Amino acid sequence: EVDSSVIHETEFTQPALFTIEYALAKLWISFGIKPDFLVGHSIGEFTAACISGVFDFETGIRLTTMRGRLMQNQPKVGSMAVVFADLESVEKVIKNYDNKISIAGINGPKNIVISGEEDSIERAISSFEEEKYIVKKLLVLKLIQ
Questions:
Q1: What are 13-33's pLDDT values in tens digits?
Q2: Among residues 5, 126, 11, 19, which one has the least CA distance to residue 68?
Q3: pLDDT tens across 94-114, in order?
Q4: Which of these, 16, 21, 13, lies nearest to 38 by C-alpha position?
Q5: What angle do CA 52, 19, 44 make, to 5 degrees?
């Protein structure tokens, strides 16, 4: 019997996502849909680079596998949230958390992802909500090793 829960482990999720994205892109190309430009986010950046010829599929698998292993080995006590506010406003709030929270991603002018210690993220979410910002906590799987 196959243990399907391992797909939720970052070590395996990262190369699996890359492979699916790569396969879908190749399928679209086989139908004659060839992009003029490629862009991606997170693992999608690896897929875009691979499809555009920056590196081959085997290199992409190696890179995403290494990335997944690095991410898997990080402490499992963190949390993440997306804050629908400008970067300056987010930085203003998180500076009060003694480097226990950092900017994890800037997805747009008013779409900032923060990450850090769970307690600090929870308190920061409350601070953002008091200032009437919309905040959504992101799913971070905490795996028992």
A1: 999 999 999 999 999 999 999
A2: 11
A3: 999 988 999 999 999 999 999
A4: 21
A5: 55
